[in-house]
Amino acid sequence: VVADVGKGGDEVGPIDVAGRTLLVHSGNLFTYTAVQAIDPESGEGWAVLTNSAALGDPAYETLLALVGKTEVSHSERPLVEAGLAATAIVSVLLATVGVRRARRPRRLWRLVPPLIPLVVFATTPQWISMLTNGRTVTWAQMTYFPAPLTITLAIVALAGLATLVARLRWMHVSTRQRPDGVAWAPPPSRPSRWQQ
Fold first, then answer.
1. What is the pTM of this model?
2. Confidence at 142, pLDDT banded by 50, 70, 90
3. How many CB atoms lie within 10 A of CB 145?
4. CA angle, 100 as apex, 94 and 101 as ends, to 5°?
5. Which of 37, 49, 54, 150 is an S-S bond match for 22, by CB 3.0 to 4.6 Å?
6. Is 181 left (phi over 0), alpha (psi -120 to 50) or beta?
7. DSSP class of 146
8. Which residues pair with 23 in a beta bridge?
């Protein structure tokens, strides 16, 4: 039995917990989290199962508390979600600035940065699958435990889209207004105050 513990999981022991060396195996599948541990010396074992998954790992924290006979430590999820909320707020502020500054002459390469969040959001299940060692990840699963991450990525993608649309719209308007059809010419460079 001990030899089978830890095959194919997210975390494999041995690890030291409260003076014991344990073989540990844990995993999740977006709708559940599980962890099991066995002490080969004493033969004692523990298993913790939860019917939800979180950005932290409550099952692992509970296992550590059971083995060490201590209180369950608090999850870091609120801190992670605060960081995601801050990222969303900053992206909305940057999009506001980007939309307001869209009328300034731009070069065509300036269309690329707003596309990056769109590509990241559109391919979220694929790169999450890559980060989770090839597990199949669907959009439906992205609405379970990583919902704050999915919402933040969507907000950042929409901010990028708003900036891109504003720049494309101004590019189209400025092309129609110029008879030669040239748009987005860089502004003439002015000498800096050090060069004057």
1. 0.63
2. confident
3. 21
4. 90
5. 37
6. left
7. T
8. 38
